[in-house]
TrEMBL record:
It is found in: Chromosome, Telomere; Nucleus. Residues 185-212 are annotated as: Disordered. This is Protection of telomeres protein 1 ssDNA-binding domain-containing protein. The keyword Nucleus applies.
Length: 394
């Protein structure tokens, strides 16, 4: 019987020793990982510092966009949130329940871009040497680069990685919390149908609304009191509330004229800026949306929210015009507002006739942006989402 011989392996002749080559590769990756882990702390995305601060994190991949061999974008979440994440748009996997404030766009360069090509939505990965970058508009993205391997795919069925275990727990808690909120809303079914014009407008709004769903955002809503007490500004919030009033009381006055020359509002009695009209060959008057919404949450707290932009889910890009002079645009404007307006026009008409009309408006999720205006804090309407059926107050 011939005994097996023990042969000394030579690391300089790996081309003839595939098993040794694989072993040494795993050893090198492990050493690199240990070295990086000893240098930078592991952080949640919500607590990571901005700028040139490297850290480690454990995340789930939601989407990928490969530009070339040296540049890819990886969309990830660790199921924490922060309101300064840059907005993202990508084809989300079926069943994805997270929104912009939980999704970090990571730019992968060099060897990391090539590693990203082997990833797929749903994968769990560990990032080493990642950092958060701030754009000129104060929005945050991630960046990871270099020729060392810094992206490691993780096995969710393993039990040895504590950071991965905590990520899976956060995901499970998030999914459970979302399902619980959805159940509450579904159980609060309306006992009566809304007016036909409101119902029709809601269907139209649902067909043209943003790709974010009402159900997705339910788990991230805050109360109005929490919004008002939040210290950081500017900041983006989601609030579940209903419209209870608007100003000016006459919707036709929701557009003002602003001078494109001196950038001042033109008084109501003028069609041109009285300070600049003699110096301008053409009209300097530009119509601008300028109206306020008063919203009320389930706790009865109210907040005034300004509407100044046309690019949002409420106005849908409708160009502003002097509404009192353009009946067609005014009707389009009223139709745009009707999904959240309910019967508030009738309420205002009742005030003029000394008649009390009870407001009847649907709940929606409002995205609002806080900003500091001198010593006061203001809030601007950004977007809104309506459910398939709006729960009615008990």
């Amino acid at each position: 019987m011939q005994e097996d011989k023990i042969t000394k392996l030579d690391s300089d002749e790996l081309e003839n020793q595939p098993h040794l080559a694989a072993l040494l590769k795993r050893k090198q990756e492990h050493e690199q990982e240990d070295q990086v882990e000893s240098q930078f702390p592991h952080k949640l995305l919500e607590e990571a510092e901005l700028g040139n601060k490297f850290f480690r994190c454990t995340v789930q991949v939601l989407g990928l966009s490969h530009k070339d061999d040296n540049r890819s974008f990886i969309y990830v979440t660790d199921y924490t949130s922060r309101q300064d994440f840059a907005p993202v748009y990508f084809k989300q996997p079926t069943g994805c329940t997270v929104g912009n404030d939980q999704i970090l766009k990571v730019e992968a360069r060099d060897e990391q871009a090539r590693t990203a090509m082997s990833l797929a939505p749903g994968d769990f990965v560990a990032f080493r040497n990642i950092r958060l970058m701030v754009s000129t508009t104060n929005l945050v993205t991630g960046r990871i680069a270099g020729n060392e391997r810094l992206i490691f795919k993780l096995n969710p069925n393993g039990t040895g990685n504590e950071d991965l275990i905590e990520l899976l727990q956060r995901k499970e808690e998030w999914d459970a919390r979302l399902e619980a909120k959805k159940a509450v809303v579904q159980n609060a079914t309306k006992k009566s149908k809304p007016p036909k014009k409101v119902e029709k407008a809601r269907e139209k709004e649902k067909a043209t609304s943003s790709k974010k769903s009402y159900e997705t955002l339910l788990g991230r809503t805050r109360s109005i009191r929490e919004v008002q007490e939040y210290s950081r500004c500017p900041w983006r919030f989601y609030v579940r509330a209903r419209l209870v009033d608007y100003y000016p009381l006459d919707l036709e006055e929701s557009v003002i004229l602003r001078c494109s020359s001196c950038d001042k509002n033109i008084p109501d009695q003028f069609n041109e800026c009285p300070d600049c009209v003699e110096d301008m060959a053409d009209s300097s008057a530009e119509p601008r949306y300028c109206f306020d919404l008063e919203i009320q949450d389930e706790d009865g707290e109210t907040l005034t929210v300004e509407v100044r932009r046309k690019e949002n889910t409420l106005l849908g890009g409708l160009e502003p015009a002097v509404l009192g002079d353009d009946f067609e645009v005014f009707e389009q404007f009223r139709e745009k507002l009707s999904p959240i307006l309910g019967n508030l026009e009738e309420v205002h008409q009742g005030i003029k006739r000394n008649k009390i009309v009870k407001p009847d408006t649907p709940f929606a999720i409002f995205e609002i942006l806080s900003r500091q205006d001198g010593n006061k804090r203001g809030y601007e309407f950004m977007n809104h989402w309506l459910p398939d059926g709006d729960p009615e107050e008990e």
